[in-house]
Amino acid sequence: MKIPFIKNFIAGRELEYIKEAVDANHLQGDGRFALECNALLEKITGARCALIVSSCTSGLELAALLADIKPGDEVVVPSFTFVSTASAFALRGAKIKWCDVREDTLNMDEEFLKGVVSENTKVIAPVHYAGVVCDMASIMETARSCGALVVEDAAQGMMSYFGGRHAGSFGQMASLSFHGTKNVVCGEGGAILINDESFIDRAYILREKGTNRRQFINGQVDKYTWVDLGGSFVASEIAAAFLLGQLEHATEITNARLRICDEYRRQLEPLELAGKLRLGRVPENCKANGHIFYMLMNTPQDASKIISLMKDKGIGACQHYAPLHLSPMGVKLAGGNPVKLPVSESAAKRIVRLPVYPQMTDEEISYVVNAVKSF
Ligand SMILES: Cc1ncc(COP(=O)(O)O)c(C=O)c1O
């Protein structure tokens, strides 16, 4: 690939920190790097408690356990997302209620949501697509009105803000991703953010296989034991060491990505004005993080053509997500009742994502833009 879809970016002391972790003879979880990542994440996001975990998926699964999801509880999830947003709750027996997304941001449609919730709604799980935070004022209000919890899928939301507040700081809980394809990475990793204090103590227990190991480490009990049903969610110190090196440069990484997205937008706007494609929107009260730059083509055929044209020119463009409500598992989870979600269905067929990585040069941006223009 001449211009791959993503490229690894070493921002600072990641490799040095990994060596330090090895030299310190502490590779399991909760070493000095993990504790520093947790503290820095709390400072950046404003969350009451941040705990790094092995992936965003495991953070969502931990949130589903903490929310005490029982078979038959309803959880509202956008269909236009990665499987984990739904599977984390479905694993606990939740009935998934699919929500459509907004045309302008492809985020959970807060008006559509009002028609999906009921007194049986246990959790609403908004996804901050492309690092643009959903309308959390409206979603939190809807959640209050039906007594539901909000678990934000902030996989793409590191360094994204709504009304000056960071993604993941609105709901009772949230999960971030540091997967290799995200902005701030450690290979495989994530963090659960907890804003409702009542979940914190149990989170420490459930992430450690349901044991009170933390109390033992803190000298509160003389041996640790099995006290609840949990899982193995803790992130390794190698991942934490790499992650700290990235988190220390989160602002520079974000600014570099935003510059690329701004440049794409500036150069592609004439095509939008000519009606050839539509670009994603960042609402005025949001500050995005440059995670994804996407175009919505006029037809699915246009999208397929442009992706194969880009491939021929050595550019890694791609599409996602196949709407979950149409997948075999998605239909089953909704109790076999097929729903119609027109925006999700249409956008998924027309979306084209362009390469974004912090070290992308002006020449590379122009090469991609010229390929789009030649379509
Ligand atoms: C919206 C969303 N949720 C969850 C995930 C899962 O993240 P992870 O790979 O860290 O489990 C992703 C990953 O792409 C995602 O985009």
Structure classification: alpha/beta
Number of E-state strands: 13
Q: Give the % helix.
A: 25-40%
- β-strand amount: 5-15%
CATH architecture descriptor of the largest domain: 3-Layer(aba) Sandwich
Number of domains: 2
Mean of residue pLDDT values = 96
Q: Output the CATH topology of the largest domain.
A: Aspartate Aminotransferase, domain 2
CATH superfamily placement of the largest domain: Type I PLP-dependent aspartate aminotransferase-like (Major domain)
Specify the CATH class of the largest domain.
Answer: Alpha Beta
Which strand order does the major sheet show?
A: 1-9-8-5-4-2-3
* Molecules bound to protein: pyridoxal-5'-phosphate
Cα shape: globular
Elements, N to C (H/E)? HHEHEHEHEHEEEEEHHHHEEEHHHEH
Assembly of the depicted chains: single chain
Q: What is the overall number of helices? A: 14
Radius of gyration: 21 Å
Distance between the termini: 19 Å
Weakly predicted, low-confidence segments: none
Largest sheet: 7 strands, mixed
Properties at a glance:
Aspartate Aminotransferase, domain 2, alpha/beta, binds pyridoxal-5'-phosphate, 2 domains, single chain, 375 residues
Task: Give the topology, please.
Blueprint: H1 14-23, H2 32-45, E1 49-53, H3 56-66, E2 74-78, H4 83-90, E3 95-99, H5 110-116, E4 121-124, H6 136-146, E5 149-154, E6 161-162, E7 165-166, E8 173-177, E9 190-194, H7 200-206, H8 213-217, H9 237-247, H10 250-273, E10 277-279, E11 286-287, E12 293-297, H11 300-312, H12 328-333, H13 342-350, E13 351-354, H14 362-373
Parallel strand pairs: 2-3, 2-4, 4-5, 5-8
Antiparallel strand pairs: 1-9, 6-7, 6-11, 8-9, 10-12, 12-13
Pyridoxal-5'-phosphate binds at residues 55-57, 81-82, 84-85, 127, 153, 155-156, 177, 179, 190.
